[in-house]
Write a structure and sequence with these properties.
Blueprint (H helix, E strand, L loop, with lengths): L4 H16 L10 H21 L5 H20 L9 H12 L1 H19 L5 H21 L5 H27 L5 H10 L1 H36 L18
Helix pairs in contact: 2-6, 2-7, 3-4, 3-5, 4-5, 4-6, 4-9, 5-6, 6-7, 7-8, 7-9
Length: about 240
Amino acid sequence: MEKWKFPLFFLLVTGLLAFSIIADSPVKLNWSLLSAGIVGAAIIFLFRGFEQSPASTREIAVIAVLGAVAALGRVSLSALPNIQPVTFLVIVSGYVFGARTGFMVGSTAALASNFFLGQGPWTPWQMFAWGLAGASAAYFRAVFPGAGKWALALFQFTWGYLFGCMMNIWTWTAFIHPLSWQSFLATWAASLWFDSLHALGNVFFYLFFGGSVIKILNRVQKKIAVSRLPVQNIPPSNNHHYKTN
């Protein structure tokens, strides 16, 4: 039951949000503050789970390196309108190493890159959105183990719009009044151009670099898996003992 507490809480809050934006609804909440609290609580919840997990030092080192590389890629291409390799790297990280590593790489990349691009109330949303992109890649691989190159390219493309949708929720709850389905659709439509560039950029980076990056990460993952193998306790040999009369 413990693992279902946060998903149930998330569904409850989502239902409240949907109900509160209906005209003449008696529920009127400060969704800017509440949504920020929900995202912050989710990040703390997931980071706490990682801290309590049996992660090896090699896994932590891989997360740090991949997060730094993704952050560097985002900073170096920040002049381009929403074309950045962060989402691509986060997704392939989760695809190879699993949901836990994928989420940590995504959230770390967002936090680290914003030290150069600017921290703000958008940072937790970026951490959460990129973290989910990495985690979902692991579930995508589990559900479609035989997915080919173009299936993963489509997954990359889709996350360009999903990431934009999540960031639109932050913009909508923080700056738009009143909250309504019409105002959300208008907010989403205003970002459609940037979300499309994000999606196309993800596909570009994956098609040109995805195969090589996944091969490298698979080799690293195999080395980590070998380091986890338990050491067999070999009983000491008794061949050197001799019975004396």
